[in-house]
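Action item from last week, closing it out:
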Amino acid sequence: MYRFKLKIPDHKFHKYALNYQYQTNSVLNDLSVSAKQKGYLTKTEFLKICSWKTPRSKPLCVINNEEFIREITFISFKTKSDQLRIEILRLLKGVSWPTASAILHFCHKDQFPILDFRALYTLGYKEVPKYNYSFWKNYTEYCRILGNQFNLDLRSVDRALWQFSKEHQNR
């Protein structure tokens, strides 16, 4: 149904993962550990992730109250339903598919990729498709296959996909 065609030659995949040039770990590492231990996000943590992924969404994200953020993220991090896990996060104001994927990427005990136009470019998409759960599921499965193929965690896969686009895609 959805087709992904990796633009990175196999022998260069690790190189792109290592050349990733964007602030992340220092900004979100502590937050990631804390959220995984607690099983939810505080409003401050939520706003940091949203700001990192999509700074333009901040005015909407701020509207969410602390209790709602905690409840929604708690359900997302604890449910066994993949569909509920991603889609419930979209109930939070300012949270679209890419931001929801970033929350799961950094805060869920399982590995999830970050949905991003750069990664999609590297996987053969010239334009951003219409997001839905079916697309998300296929994208996640494909990124996990790449992780297994290259013996990398999904953070490294995400970095490689992003960096290749940064170096080759014209906006």
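Closing note: The chain has two domains: 10-23+113-168, 25-107.
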